[in-house]
Specification:
The protein has about 425 residues and is α/β, with parallel strands linked by helices. It has 15 helices and 14 strands. The radius of gyration is 21 Å and the shape is globular. It binds pyridoxal-5'-phosphate.
Length: about 425
């Protein structure tokens, strides 16, 4: 039994932690089997409790874009730690990272740091409501914006994996203010605006969706969505928790050439530490407390260790423009080579990719919204996942997730991955 210690730990963890995990997708519930407990990570690799190692295609669900334990980030954080862990006061470091981001990212005059992507999105819609004086928001089926109440309605990967699109505990009152549209379907958004005249505060979207697998906006969709929001006086919120600092430094705003009114960040912005942020033009951001009436706060927000890790990671990304070219190229090679191996084996599949975001769906059909993603062959994905896991390749444990490529994945890792894919055989059950 190659996962002996993981199994034992999982068994015991379930006595003390609901489901044995602190975030549901880690539990392997959809793919089955025992989640692998990791104890160490370095570069492209994760090391488990049983002494095996894995090429990591999750990278902590995105933040570790440089690969694990990058020496410069490690050094900066170690140095920072010796100065104290948390002050609960303003620091120069918070100003530095805010200034750096605002100078290098479109439409960010001001930015407020929080502790997770969930908080970032939750606060962004509160601000949008406070700013517009309207109550309703539009979200897209299959998009995930964290686990705050307003968003737990057809919320993509985690929720979709577990087959309960709408969580108990979200009140009808909250749910009625969240309107659902279909990704890549502008008409569905138009209809909502018509049925809810002057009531919609904001439309929030993952500009390149990553939580129903990777789904790319079709030509013209985002441009029209931008126009529609402007016409109707609603804010367009880009949830760039996944895309931010992954699709180049300017995120999806720059890749798609669309200007958002508010932008939510997370994942990479903290370099592996718990950080989220939301940002936008001063006229909107200045509605936040203490300047304005919209309240938002956080005891550990802007924590110096987290800010140092974030600022160092962002600086590396900014100073090394080739890095993005490199990881996009790695992703393209994986796309083409894996696809070609699967085709040779006669396994029908679709690959969706944008920059270094990629996902494989099994089946004949193209995938351009949540319904399509649900129709893919998730049982086959689960076989594929377990096969690769046994071969030492660690994919996200759900067909609704995007793979996250890091800059540490080089030729050697690509080759090992392709060899593992070569050995894949479909088992009929
Ligand atoms: C991960 C994610 C979130 C939630 O971030 P957490 O830090 O997990 O709370 C929100 N939006 C998107 C697009 C994400 O990918």
């Amino acid at each position: 039994m190659i996962y002996q210690r993981s199994s034992a730990l999982f068994q015991e963890a379930q006595n003390y932690i609901p489901g044995g995990v602190n975030s549901p997708v880690r539990a392997f519930k959809s793919v089955g089997g025992v989640p692998v407990f990791m104890k160490k990570a370095l570069g492209a690799y994760l090391y488990d409790e049983d002494g095996r190692n894995y090429i990591d295609y999750i990278n902590s669900w995105g933040p570790m874009i440089l690969g694990h334990t990058h020496p410069m980030v490690l050094e900066a954080v170690t140095h920072q730690l010796k100065k104290g862990f948390s002050f609960g006061t303003p620091t120069e470091l918070e100003m530095e990272i805010a200034k750096f981001i605002s100078e290098n990212v479109p439409n960010v005059d001001k930015i407020r740091m929080v502790n997770s992507g969930t908080e970032a999105c939750m606060s962004a819609i509160r601000l949008a409501r406070g700013f517009t004086g309207r109550d309703k928001i539009v979200k897209f089926e299959g998009c995930y914006h964290g686990h705050s109440d307003s968003f737990l309605i057809k919320a993509g990967s985690g929720a979709a994996t577990f087959g309960n699109p709408n969580s108990p505990g979200v009140t009808n009152g909250t749910a009625k203010d969240t309107l659902l549209a279909r990704f890549n379907d502008l008409e569905s958004v138009r209809n909502l605006f018509e049925q809810n005249q002057d009531e919609i505060a904001a439309v929030i979207i993952e500009p390149i969706a990553g939580n129903m697998g990777c789904i790319v906006p079709e030509f013209g969709f985002m441009e029209e969505l931008r126009k529609l929001c402007t016409q109707k006086g609603a804010l367009l919120i880009f949830d760039e928790v996944m895309t931010g600092f992954r699709l180049g430094f300017g995120g999806a705003q720059k890749s798609l050439n669309i200007e958002a009114d508010l932008i939510a960040y997370g994942k990479i912005i903290g370099g592996g530490f718990p950080v989220g942020a939301f940002a936008g033009r001063s006229e909107i951001m200045d509605h936040l407390a203490p300047l304005g009436p919209v309240y938002q706060a956080g005891t550990l927000s802007g924590n110096p260790i987290a800010m140092r890790a974030g600022l160092t990671t962002l600086s590396i990304l900014h100073n090394e423009p080739d890095l993005y070219i490199r990881i996009d190229e790695t992703t393209k090679i994986l796309h083409e080579e894996i696809s070609s191996i699967l085709s040779q084996k006669g396994i029908a599949h679709t690959v969706n990719r944008f920059g270094s975001m990629i996902s494989f769906f099994f089946g004949e059909n193209k995938v351009s919204n949540f319904d399509d993603a649900q129709k893919a062959d998730h049982l086959l994905f689960n076989q594929f996942f377990h096969h690769l896991l046994n071969e030492g390749v660690y994919l996200p444990p759900s067909g609704y997730e995007t793979w996250f490529i890091s800059d540490s994945i080089g030729n050697e890792e690509i080759e090992k991955t392709l060899e593992a894919v070569e050995k894949f055989e479909v088992k009929f059950t």
